[in-house]
Hints:
By secondary structure, the chain is of the alpha+beta class. The chain has helices at 20-26, 69-72, 95-106, 155-172, and strands at residues 14-17, 35-45, 55-57, 65-68, 82-89, 113-125, 138-140, 143-146. The chain is built from 4 helices and 8 strands. A hairpin with a 2-residue loop joins strand 7 and strand 8. The longest helix has 18 residues, at 155-172.
Amino acid sequence: MQSSEGEAFEADAVIVATDPAQAAALVPEIDAPVMRDVTTFYHAAPKSPLEEPLQILDAEGIITDTLVLTDAAPEYSADGRALISTSVLGIDADESRVRGRLEEIYGDTAGWQLIATYPIKAALPAMLPPLRLRRPVRIRRGRYVCGDHRDTGSIQGALVSGRRAAEAVLADLPG
């Protein structure tokens, strides 16, 4: 292996933990999946519309998911307001359409304030049919790849694949 400065070094195991395009460039045995753009909206509300930590998946609307972050982590609010996170596929999302759907889900949103909008290109691997929930993290003995592109397209998938890669390394290396 070589470091970024060009210095060669040896390792019994290498875990590539990066985005799918970089992983495919570094490990030719894997393909980079189709990626989806995602926009996340953050709203502040005078109080939580739920008052319990639930992630709502919207199978019928224009959003993918929404949750009141401060119901799970009250410390995210310095002034006691509720912080609501909502994600939609694409980067050209219309906040007024999103707000309309949030009103259908949560009720009155008139007192909500848009805090920030984060459009992120190639944020998540597309989960296309036929759906393969898990891809191998062990490419060959000593070479491992992790990221949400090796598991479900989510933060959870990235964490699970990282654990799977670590377990594979531990299983392959002598104790």
